[in-house]
UniProtKB/TrEMBL annotation:
Coiled-coil region(s): none
Keywords in alphabetical order: Glycoprotein, Signal, Vacuole
Gene3D superfamilies xrefs: TolB, C-terminal domain
Organism: Populus trichocarpa (Western balsam poplar)
CC terms in the record's Gene Ontology section: vacuole
GO function terms (MF aspect): hydrolase activity
Signal peptide: 1-19
Family stated for the protein in its record: Belongs to the strictosidine synthase family.
Protein name per the record: Strictosidine synthase conserved region domain-containing protein
Domain Strictosidine synthase conserved region: 220-307
Highest rank taxon of the organism: Eukaryota
Keyword Glycoprotein (UniProt): yes
Matching InterPro entries: 6-blade_b-propeller_TolB-like, Strictosidine_synth_cons-reg
Alphabetical list of PANTHER family matching this protein: PROTEIN STRICTOSIDINE SYNTHASE-LIKE 2, STRICTOSIDINE SYNTHASE-RELATED
């Protein structure tokens, strides 16, 4: 087929797909019922607001409690009963309200801060970038400084551009986590496998590149059991690399794995296989189970490590969006970054996998299709789940011009550090 015909076909299908996405945007949750007055038969209590006035009405969420109140500076706040204070929930559309809360921390020479980690001294965060670097935040004065690289091949890796075509050469670090005992940083690099770098940084060392004879093709998320040193990590696909992620989605690929690396005996064990785009992982506080995001199935799985349930897996939470990384919150529960909402178009593709397979067989420019569809991911979205999988809190950038494709939310010292695979900055938001 002539190149012009191929581009025309790709453009036509992309335009049609984009139109369907634009038409079918849905709310993530049902609108809660609104109440005008709360009376409990007890004495009235003043619940003071900081920095604003005017909670005219209240609302309760069917899953995430409340009450919620809209106040004068454009925020919607939620009452946290166990903390006895109001916390920020979301913003109205006013730019001034959002700008006072969300800070953009620019990334120089790259984009896509996928994941964050703080070292054992609480320094950081460290962030994984699109050009194969891991950088360290040194405060507003120094900004980001280079800490480590995933690959020794750095020619052609720099510059603020799309690094997708050079990722297999430069590396693409995704999940990050520090071993607090030894101070080493472990890195899940999509192409290089499981890596480790010491406290002085520099070139990371490859630790795991295969599991049960099968190469790691799309290493993604990881977490560490700080008591034993065991590392839990995912390989999103045994068939496709990260730069072919749309093929993973459209084909319904089920070759992903959850693995455990023991640094003492240097052995790797496959805990779960035949997974559909396994992504972020997070160990529970007591170490009894690990949570795993199955991205294209819009759900979080719980794999039991200890107790009588050890070795079993169950659905922890079913979401209305595509989950990415998972991080424990110091306030309890887990933050889940969401790449985008689950739209009617995606429902159609996942209900009828043959549609995706037909699209893959057409002479399409997949890179062009991926680039165009990324523009329709909508506003940034993340949820905090309880220890039982219930929704405790929702973070959403309603305007959609600031944050999109949220990959991770990491909470530290009263701030949320927000990552995205698609943006040239990290978000910083004070709770």
């Amino acid at each position: 087929m002539a190149m012009s015909s191929k581009l025309f076909l790709t453009a036509t299908i992309t335009a049609l797909t984009s139109s369907l996405i634009a038409i079918n945007h849905e709310f993530l949750y049902h609108r809660p019922s609104v109440v005008e007055k709360i009376s409990s038969g007890r004495e009235w209590e003043a619940l003071q607001l900081e920095g604003a006035i005017g909670p005219e009405s209240f609302a309760f969420h069917r899953l995430a409690g409340g009450p919620y109140a809209g106040i004068s500076d454009g925020r919607v706040v939620r009452w946290e009963e166990h903390e006895r204070r109001w916390i920020n929930f979301s913003f109205a559309s006013q730019e001034s309200a959002r700008a006072r809360q969300l800070k953009k921390v620019p990334i120089v020479g790259a984009f896509g801060p996928e994941s964050f980690a703080f070292d054992s001294l609480g320094k950081g965060p460290y962030a994984s970038l699109s050009d194969g670097r891991i950088v360290k935040w040194q405060g507003n004065r120094k900004g980001w400084t280079d800490f480590a690289v995933a690959s020794p091949n750095r020619d052609g890796c720099g510059g603020p551009r799309d690094h997708q075509q050079t990722e297999h050469i430069c590396g693409r670090p995704l999940g990050l986590c520090f071993d607090e005992t030894h101070g080493d940083l472990y890195i899940a690099d999509a192409y290089m496998g499981l890596l480790r770098v010491g406290t002085q940084g520099g070139l990371a060392t490859k630790i795991v590149t295969h599991a049960q004879g099968i190469p790691l093709r799309f290493t993604n998320g990881l977490d560490i059991d700080q008591s034993s040193g065991a590392i839990y990590f995912t390989d999103s696909s045994s068939q496709y690399q990260r730069r072919q992620y749309l093929s993973v989605v459209l084909s319904g690929d089920k070759s992903g794995r959850l693995m455990k690396y023991d640094p003492v005996n240097k052995q790797v064990r496959v805990l779960l296989s035949n997974l559909t785009f396994p992504n972020g992982v997070a160990l529970s506080k007591d170490g009894n189970f690990i949570l795993l995001a199955e991205t294209t199935r819009c759900r979080i799985l719980r794999y039991w490590i200890k107790t009588s349930k050890a070795g079993t897996v169950e659905v922890f939470a079913q979401l209305q969006g595509f989950p990415d990384n998972i991080k424990r919150s110091p306030r309890g529960g887990y933050w889940v970054g969401m790449n985008s909402r689950r739209e009617k178009l995606s429902e159609l593709l996942f209900s009828y996998p043959w549609i995706g397979n037909v699209l893959l067989k057409l002479p399409l420019d997949i890179a062009m299709l991926q680039s165009t569809l990324s523009k329709y991911r909508g506003s940034g979205l993340a949820v905090r789940l309880s220890e039982n999988g219930d929704i405790l809190e929702v973070f959403e950038d309603n305007d959609g011009d600031g944050l999109k494709s949220i990959s991770e939310v990491m909470e530290k010292d009263g701030r949320l550090w927000i990552g995205s695979i698609a943006l040239p900055f990290a978000g910083r938001y004070r709770i």
